[in-house]
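[DERIVE C-ALPHA CELLS]
===
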Amino acid sequence: MRNYLILPFLAGLAACGPDVAYRPTAQLLPSNIRKIAIRHAVNKTQQFGLEDKFTLRVRDEFLRDGSYSITPEADCDGIVWITIARYLLTPVQYDVNLIPTAYKLRIMIDLQFVDRAANVALWEEKNLEGVLVYPVATLPGGKTEEQAREDIWDILSRDVVKRVVEGFGSVTGSSKNRVSSEGPSTPPAITPGKASAPVNPNPY
C-alpha cells in the first residue's frame, strides 16, 4: 500500500525537476546604461598600431549588434575600456632546414566597463584570449601575420560585445573575472563629460 503512495510522489518530483533546477542569472548592465562609448584601446605590447585597428573593429561589432547606441564619451552612460595586454607569436612547426612553417599567434586583452555617471568600474574581465595556429603564407592555405591578426580581431571583438551585452559568464578570460562584492572599483583617470585624447600607440 505504501508503494502506491510513494510512486506518485516520486513521479511528481521527476516532473518538476527541470523547473526547479538552478539557473544562475546573467549579470547584465544596469537599466540606466543605454548609450555606450568605446574608449581608444591601450596597447601595452611592443607591436605598433594594434590599438587603432582593434578599436575600430570593436566599434563596428557593437554597431552590427545594435543592442546599445554608440556615442562619444561626453554623451554616453557607460564606457568600454580595452587594454591589449600581450602579443605572442611562436613558431610551432619547422621544415627539414628548421625554417618555421607554422605559427601560433596569441593576443590577450583586459576588458573593463565603467559607469560614467558614477565614475566607477562595474566589472572587469582579464585575459580574454584570441588564438590562431596558421601555416606560413608560402604554403597552401597559409596566412601572413597580419592576416592572422585580422582573424583574431574578429574573434576578440565578438567576445567584447558578447561580454558587455550578455553579461557575466558569456565569455571567460583565463584569469578570474571580477565583480566586486564591496561595490564597484574606481577606474583610473576618467573625467566625466570629457572625451579622452588618443593614447600613445606604443607606450612601452
User: Anything to note?
Assistant: The domain at 27-166 is CATH 3.30.160.150 (Double Stranded RNA Binding Domain). The first strand starts at residue 35 and ends at 38. The helical segments are 2-20, 50-65, 145-166. The chain has a mean pLDDT of 81.
